[in-house]
Amino acid sequence: MDYNDLENDISYLNATKTDMHFGVYVNTVGFQSIKAGEHYPLKDHPSGYFFNVSKGRVLQEFQLLYITKGAGSFTSDCTPAQPLVKGSLLCLFPGQWHTYSPSEKMGWNEYYIGFNGPVAELWFRQARITADNPVLKVGFNADLVKLFQQAIEVANSGKNASQQCLSGIVMHILGLICYVSSNRIFEEDSISQKIERSKIIMIENLYKNIDVEELAENLNLSYSWFRKVFKDYTGYAPAKYFQELKIKKAEDLLMRTSHSVKEISYMLNYKSAEHFFSLFKKKTGFTPLEYRNYIRGGEMGASRTSRRPDLPDLPEPPKDLLEEMEAARKK
Known about the structure:
Blueprint: E1 9-12, H1 17-20, E2 25-34, E3 57-58, E4 62-76, E5 82-85, E6 88-92, E7 97-102, E8 108-116, H2 118-127, E9 135-137, H3 142-157, H4 162-183, H5 191-204, H6 212-218, H7 223-234, H8 238-256, H9 261-267, H10 273-284, H11 288-297, H12 304-307, H13 319-330
Antiparallel strand pairs: 1-2, 2-8, 3-7, 4-5, 4-6, 4-7, 4-8, 6-9
Helix pairs in contact: 3-4, 8-11
């Protein structure tokens, strides 16, 4: 099964002089899923970001591009053509001519963030990451995906001090990249990498249902072995981990949005609102509406939410889901 649930999501931001004084400011952040044979890039970029694969381009900022699925290639005025495989992170530098694209046969999933500022320049110098060696092998890392998704969510929120929050996320991403790439703490075909890859697949397909036995097969593991090592690695069996992710997202939607319980159950692909209601109460000790009332009133107390082992922040609902729900509401 070809798992992929996230919609393309691209944001361009404006930084004020005050934002720039913080040392790092973000200009763009996004996610794109390019299917095999699909034209790349998918949409026109605004002035300063226009990209034609055959002609290449020059940016006036740093960019990080993280590939979590598929493969492609990259070349620049400092490097010969080289492959970009899943688990690769590409560092682009201001003033550097470059071009890259996914394989026509495979496509790819890419997360990226563009930023500038004197602190960013200093970081790259100190980390000794240069334009002539820009492709880092960081492997599959669910924490890195979480940080990119946090940045996308903050950029989409449009709230005050978003740039300052994004600045912190960029520094966290850079620190994690340095830690992973410097210590070589992964092996491409290791069990831990397979588990990290499975976690990323779950995060990126949160609004679907995943057959964990098929997932194990995709990773070339027997299900019994996959279940054992996944539980050893995360503390959860795979199916339970995926359900925990769904419940965590349901809690987030109940807290931050006005979607009804029925709409949230539909968005998260539960078989019925009644099933969602029952499962939510079993997992949290609250009905969905009780949870919404308590958390918004600040009277939640020591709930299961605060006792649960750490789980990643999760992606927003696909826009077509929201549009479909809005159309149904109008009828």
